[in-house]
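Q: Here's a chain of 68 amino acids. Please give me its 3D structure as tokens.
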Amino acid sequence: MLAEAYLHRLDPFAVQITETFGLRWYGLAYISGFIIAWVLLRWLGKKKFILIPPERAGDILFATVLGV
């Protein structure tokens, strides 16, 4: 019964340029996460929920990207 289970065959590339080069799904996840974090930092800064001014959100995100 388990041998007949569904086995996915998802392509790891979201956009494939050459056979070995392209944009992978996990890359899109990182980019999406960084964009959402930037928007959230700016929003929280404008609402004064955090002490970080909205103008500094890009600087913090840049340091985060370097850390990852």
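Q: Can you summarize the key feature?
A: The two ends are 42 Å apart (CA to CA).
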